[in-house]
Structure formats: structure tokens, C-alpha cells
Write a structure and sequence with these properties.
Elements lengths: L8 H11 L3 E5 L3 H13 L4 E5 L1 H6 L3 H14 L6 E8 L2 H9 L4 E4 L6 H18 L2 E6 L3 E4 L2 E3 L6 H8 L5 E4 L4 E2 L10 H11 L3 E3 L7 H9 L2 E6 L1 H16 L11 H23 L6
Parallel strand pairs: 1-2, 1-11, 2-3, 3-4, 4-5, 5-8, 6-9, 10-11
Antiparallel strand pairs: 6-7
Helix pairs in contact: 2-4, 2-11, 5-6, 7-8, 10-11
The chain binds zinc ion.
Length: about 290
């Protein structure tokens, strides 16, 4: 059972859907990412979803280490906003189980690389397990294109029938692939706004937009008005961090004083991430909604 200081998608997404705003999922990679997402969301009085991919889990030393870090920071920084600790793109029942045992309050099962029958079958088992533990579930239908942790896939639009069948299993949020991609878009995003409206209405579920980076602000706003209530942002935050460190090293600031101190090296990256996250929370309309 997860620590009650954490919340689930059930606590925040129905309200977001009703109020026509979206909650950001920020994918975390390490201590700085976690600190930035928590503190920025707190300053903006916004709920926040911390996404952890299977790759990030390995990188950070496992689910329990991540849960410990997040809970410790919630206490230390006096975070009072709703925080959801969410497995991003769990590809097997086993990894979902491991995340729940490791203290996560929310999981995504991504069966999009399987056929729909198998996807539904495993999603059903995931929902049953999650319900036992009060954990929320996001499931994927269709296939978000692009590259996620080294896995490259093409876009496949979700169908209404698939969405209805997935919704009937009792999932809390639906990642219906409607044209977004992981990483950067080549050219302008072609999002299925009509389908978003239709699927959102037909399922009654909050929709999840994966690959929120590189989509123009007006398209993001339109997607929110069409039923997208959770938007995952990863690439843009990584780029903001990276760009700031490039400037730090190119300007040779590391040669001045204690510029070699890792905490000084990280500082410009942290500030850049704070700003990038703040911009997303404002764009998604979740500020003041905690
Ligand atoms: Zn994704």
C-alpha cells in the first residue's frame, strides 16, 4: 500500500476534466528533476504527476529508492500539493506489480505493442491488482509513435471500439493515441481533435496526451478543451536542462571559484527546468488548482 501522502489519478483527473485543464506528468530522471517538479508545482499551487519509466527506474536504483526520495522531499520541502507517483509505460504485469510493491500510487500499463485482445487481457489483470491497493491505472490504446526509452514505434490511431472496451475494464485514465509522438514532432502535429471529443464523451474518462513536447501551445489548449486531462512532458524539460549546462560549460564558469562543485554545475540546469515546468503548468491551466 502506498504512503497516504501520495495521491492517485482518481483524486485529480476527474476535476481537471470537468474544469477543462490538464495536469502535467513530468518524467523524473534523478534528484534534480524530482526537486524541480515538486518545488515548481508547489510554487504554482498545482497538482503534479511524477512519471517514472522502466529505464528511469533502473537508472535511479529501483522503485523503493525513488519512492523514498519523493516522500523524503515532500516532507523536507513542505510540499502540500497533490503528488502522484506514477509508473510510465509499464510494459508487463510484473513491472506494474513491482511498482505497486515499491510504493507507487499510480501505474500505466502500456500494452500498445501487443494485439488489442492481449492488451485488454493484461490491462484487466492490472486493474484488479491496482484496485486491491487503491492505486490508479492508465492504459494505452492505439500506439503513440516516436522513441521512448530506445523503443521506436509508428503512430496508430486508437479506435472508438478499443477505447470503449478499455474503459469498461475500469481504468482511470486513457492514453488514446491520436497523433502525438514521443520526442519531437517532425513538422506540425496532426492531432485528432474530433476523436478526442468523441472518445472522451463515449468513455467518460480523462484522456492522456503522450509526447506533449514540441506541440504548439494553441494545439495543446485545443486538445485540453477536447478532453485531454493529463499531458506528459519529458523531452522539453531535458532540453532546457541540457541547454543551460551547455551555456555553463561554454562560458567556462566551471573554472571560476568552486564552479566545479556538482551543486554549482547543476544550478543553472535546475533553474532552467523550474522555468520550463512553470511554463507548462501555466499553459495547461493547472496553476492554482491544487
Ligand atoms: Zn508516453
Amino acid at each position: 500500500m502506498f504512503n497516504k501522502r501520495l495521491k492517485t489519478l482518481k483524486d485529480i483527473l476527474p476535476m481537471a476534466r470537468q474544469g477543462k485543464y490538464a495536469v502535467a506528468q513530468i518524467n523524473i530522471n534523478n534528484l534534480e528533476w524530482t526537486k524541480s517538479a515538486l518545488n515548481t508545482a508547489q510554487e504554482c499551487n498545482s497538482p503534479i504527476i511524477l512519471g517514472v519509466s522502466e529505464g528511469a527506474k533502473k537508472y535511479m536504483g529501483g522503485f523503493e529508492a525513488i519512492t523514498g526520495m519523493v516522500l523524503g522531499m515532500i516532507d523536507f520541502y513542505k510540499i502540500t500539493i497533490p503528488v502522484i507517483l506514477h509508473l510510465d509505460h509499464g510494459t508487463t504485469y510484473e513491472v506494474v506489480e513491482e511498482a505497486i510493491k515499491g510504493g507507487f500510487s499510480s501505474v500505466m500499463f502500456d500494452g500498445s505493442k501487443r494485439n488489442i485482445e492481449e492488451n485488454l487481457e493484461i490491462s484487466k489483470k492490472v486493474v484488479a491488482l491496482a484496485m486491491e491497493h487503491g492505486v490508479s491505472v492508465e492504459a494505452e490504446v492505439g500506439s503513440v509513435g516516436g522513441e521512448e526509452d530506445g523503443v521506436v514505434g509508428g503512430i496508430r490511431y486508437a479506435s472508438l471500439d478499443e477505447c470503449k472496451r478499455m474503459a469498461a475494464l475500469g481504468v482511470d485514465a486513457l492514453a488514446a493515441s491520436l497523433g502525438s509522438v514521443h520526442g519531437h514532432y517532425e513538422g506540425e502535429a496532426k492531432l485528432g481533435f474530433e476523436e478526442m471529443k468523441e472518445y472522451s464523451k463515449a468513455t467518460g474518462l480523462p484522456l492522456v496526451l503522450h509526447g506533449g513536447s514540441g506541440i504548439a501551445d494553441d494545439l495543446i489548449k485545443k486538445a485540453i478543451s477536447c478532453g485531454e486531462s493529463k499531458i506528459n512532458v519529458n523531452t522539453e524539460i531535458q532540453e532546457a536542462f541540457c541547454d543551460a549546462l551547455v551555456v555553463y560549460f561554454e562560458s567556462e564558469k566551471y573554472k571560476i571559484g568552486k564552479g566545479y562543485d556538482p551543486r554549482n554545475i547543476m544550478k543553472p540546469g535546475l533553474i532552467a527546468m523550474n522555468n520550463a515546468i512553470e511554463n507548462k503548468l501555466k499553459l495547461f491551466g493547472s496553476t492554482g488548482k491544487a
